[in-house]
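Researcher: Last one for today. Full complex below.
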Amino acid sequence: DIQMTQSPSSLSASVGDRVTITCRASQSISNYLNWYQQKPGKAPKLLIYGASSLQTGVPSRFSGSRSGTDFTLSISSLQPDDFATYYCQQTYSIPVTFGQGTKLDIK
Amino acid sequence: EVQLVESGGGLIQPGGSLRLSCVVSEFTVSSNYMNWVRQAPGKGLEWVSVIYTGGQTYHADSVKGRFTTSRDNSKNTLYLQMNSLKAEDTAVYYCARETPGEKNFDHWGQGTLVTVSS
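Model: Here's the assembly. Have a good evening.
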């Protein structure tokens, strides 16, 4: 199974900050890496697919990038609505696996 | 508007069985890959299973041999049959659409809670 190691597990930031979350795959997954946002009591929401493509309707302050087996989700200027938990996901092979999650809260 | 609505969760004793349903509107279940993902209380996301357009299914090792994924094309509904339930199966279960070739889960249901406890 492909392991996804996500860091940090938690992050405190302020409105307007730029934040970065990282996910490392245990082997090559090409660009089959997606990012989701989840708020308490809600289903995950797709933000970024294919490592760097922005899902329709997602604000452009969200972006994704890849360097080898390292993937990054960046939020350029945090808004109040962005405080949530973020997960990476690899869909290169079965079983699909998720990172452990990063909880982003207000400093 | 695309909708996925799960049902069938509840409180069940260890060793028992439950069948979850996911009723879909505005797209055809049989034309998409359909997944189940679960989330234990306070924990992260765990993929459970997928059913492909051709009917082939795959399951996580943690549920293999106990859970079965199926669909009813006439009802446009996805199912998860869960047998021999264990306490560690306690979770919110989500169904999610994966458009063939896209390899992402673009639409999710609201989830249904399964609690396995005596």
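Chain A touches chain B through 24 residues (CB under 8 Å). The mean pLDDT of chain A is 97.
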